[in-house]
Amino acid sequence: MYEENEIRFPPPGRTPREDTAAVMKFYKLPESFPRSVLDEAKRCAEKLDNPGKRLDLRRKFIFTCDPQSARDYDDALSLETDRKGNRVLGVHIADVSHFVESGSALDREAYRRSTSVYLADRVVPMLPEELSNGLCSLVPGEDRLAFSVFMTFDKSGEMVKRSFAKSVIRSKARFSYEQVMAIIRGAAGGLGKREAKLIREVNALAQQLRAARFASGALDIEIPEAEVLLDESGEMTGLATRPYDESHQMIEECMVAANEAVAKELWTKGVKILARLHEPPDEEKLLMLRADMRGLGVKMGDISKQKVFAQFLRSIKRNPLYPTLAMMVLRSMKRAVYDGSNMGHFGLAKKYYAHFTSPIRRYPDLTLHRQLSAYLEGGASAARVPAKILAKWAKHTSDCEETAAEAERGLLEIKKFRLLESQLSTRQILDYDAVVVKCAPFGCFVEIPELAVSGLVHVSLLSRKFVSFNESDHSLSAPGGGRWRIGDRMRVHVAKVDFVQRKVDFVPVRRNLV
């Protein structure tokens, strides 16, 4: 948002090509792995030949589903039916802990990084490529070591059993989201009827789990994820909206189920873990949100109750202002963090939740793999970690995650501001559809959904007459009928770009002022 703040913005590079390097330097992101780490990674291939005692699942139909551009595959799925007719969902996660031993050079570097960072034009990985794109990647047709979570669901979608095992798998197929979506819609996808039917059954189960989650009060906030498009010189050419269809939902629900199953198993057995904690919004934030919604004529009900909050989110799905409303809700929420002493995920409506399914790119998942492995081998006492260590891990990994998010967001902002600045310098100024997201005595803030950029339209550009600010409904009005409020739409173009403060001024395209 275009507001006064004390945020330090990352500087742009001297040229667009150098923006990423500038952001990495600003956030102190590592450019390479130490030689000791790379040497250790090269020796990890030997460990593939010594898998230890494992459940052999290589004959099972196990598949992966990832973005078309994905280079590493850390999760795979299977589905079978037991003798009682229940569905047994298998979520098979790359067994990174087999290769990255606690206290090793690889482990120390993975902890230092704590997360992979996904910048606009490159990835800063948590682990070297020998592991992330090689030994730990569940590529089709190759034997890979996994940590499998088996969850048995009855016809109503209730989980009636869970079990865990170190395994060896051989993925039978690698699908993109687009291919899985086509199979869900009825295409064969190059599969036999049995395999195609199985994928549709996985999706049916996932949709059942999704419906149950929302019925329990999970928050259904769908804001399309945007991917920045760059040309060869590093200049931004636009944003592409990533779809979020049933294929994405299928994978998400299976991963959520596995994360919950592991967290519940350990926590209820007296093993505290690095939980994924998401607390409810503060009362003050909810009051501000209610006031903003009231200004738009939107009723919320008693949103201090989670199920009412969830019902409210469903009720605004068809509102033409939904993207703006959803963003307002997100801004009122607390950030999810890692915590070693508290449990619960407000957004997902889960009492037990932790991250288990992405050990290639998140260190908390790797710690959970180690604790689950110790638990399976030696019981709860073997899996316990001292509270001080968990607290240390929680703070460090949460801080690293926040730094990664700021770096990703910072580079995107640089690219967006370069785009707007170039329009001014080349006089090739484009008009954009904008939505008023906030009003103040000095003007209104607008957001351009096409670019996900916010900026100010100064009050002097709204009317030739005196414009007053109405505190009761957070609107602006001028004599003669001019009125501007949250949710109003207008056509604007860029007027000024302040790269240092990351602020943009816009001008309404229509200049026939009242």
Task: Give the structure's gist in a few sentences.
The protein has 514 residues and is an alpha+beta fold. The chain is 37% helix and 23% strand.
Helix and strand topology:
Blueprint: H1 19-26, H2 35-43, H3 45-48, E1 55-56, E2 63-66, E3 75-81, E4 87-94, H4 96-99, H5 105-113, E5 117-118, E6 123-124, H6 129-135, E7 143-153, E8 159-170, E9 173-176, H7 177-184, H8 193-215, E10 225-230, E11 236-242, H9 246-267, E12 275-277, H10 283-295, H11 306-315, H12 322-332, E13 337-339, H13 363-378, H14 380-383, H15 387-426, E14 432-440, E15 443-448, E16 453-458, E17 468-470, E18 475-478, E19 482-484, E20 489-498, E21 503-508
Parallel strand pairs: 1-8, 2-9
Antiparallel strand pairs: 3-4, 4-7, 5-6, 7-8, 10-11, 12-13, 14-15, 14-20, 15-16, 17-18, 18-19, 20-21
Helix pairs in contact: 1-15, 8-9, 10-12
Between the first and last Cα atoms, what is the distance in angstroms?
27 Å
Alpha-beta classification: alpha+beta
Helix content: 25-40%
Total number of domains: 2
Silhouette: globular
Number of helices: 15
Q: How are strands sequenced across the largest beta sheet?
A: 1-8-7-4-3
Quantity of strands, as a count: 21
Average residue pLDDT: 92
Low-confidence stretches: 1-6
Classify the beta-strand content into a percent band.
15-25%
Main sheet properties: 5 strands, mixed
Cα Rg: 25 Å
Describe the structure.
The longest helix has about 40 residues, at about 385-425. The chain has a 5-stranded mixed sheet with strand order 1-8-7-4-3. Strands 16-15-14-20-21 form a 5-stranded antiparallel sheet, with helices on one face. It has 15 helices and 21 strands. Helix 8 (about 195-215) packs across helix 9 and helix 10 packs antiparallel against helix 12 (about 320-330). A hairpin with a 4-residue loop joins strand 15 (about 445-450) and strand 16 (about 455-460). The two termini are about 25 Å apart. The chain has helices spanning about 20-25, 35-45, 45-50, 95-100, 105-115, 130-135, 175-185, 195-215, 245-265, 285-295, 305-315, 320-330, 365-380, 380-385, 385-425, and strands spanning about 55, 65, 75-80, 85-95, 115-120, 125, 145-155, 160-170, 175, 225-230, 235-240, 275, 335-340, 430-440, 445-450, 455-460, 470, 475-480, 480-485, 490-500, 505-510. The chain is an alpha+beta fold and about 525 residues long. It folds into 2 domains: about 15-280 and about 335-415, no CATH class; about 430-510, OB fold (Dihydrolipoamide Acetyltransferase, E2P) (Beta Barrel).
